[in-house]
Write a structure and sequence with these properties.
The structure is a single chain. The chain is rod-shaped. 0% of the residues are buried. The protein is mainly alpha-helical. The chain has two helices and no strands. The model has no long low-confidence stretch (mean pLDDT 77). The protein has a domain at 26-72.
Length: 100
């Protein structure tokens, strides 16, 4: 009758979903977790790479600036004054044999 306990042996009962143990990780969730861990690791490495790259570029610019300051300027000489230009012009004309 309805509501009466059955006298079946518990070992004879058919298996039901509620009889399965809870909190058993499925293979899919483990794989998903590994994928997310790798993805997080990748993003962390990407951020570290960007920081190191920016630091390297800043140090390179700093070294280039120091090199420019410490080496003589051969490519762009400073403009000479009027007197020096007139003197150099007179010297050049004297070597050519021109008289002013």
């Amino acid at each position: 009758m309805f509501g009466e306990p059955t006298r079946q042996d518990p070992s004879e009962r058919p298996g039901r979903d509620s009889d399965m143990p809870r909190n058993v990780p499925t293979k899919e969730s483990i794989e998903t977790k590994e994928i997310f861990e790798r993805l997080n690791s990748f993003h962390r490495l990407e951020k570290e790479y960007d920081a190191l790259k920016a630091r390297f570029e800043a140090q390179s610019r700093h070294l280039e600036d120091l090199q420019r300051l410490l080496t003589p300027r051969l490519e762009a000489p400073r403009p000479i004054g009027k007197r020096a230009a007139r003197y150099l012009g007179e010297l050049a004309r004297a070597f050519k044999g021109e008289n002013p």
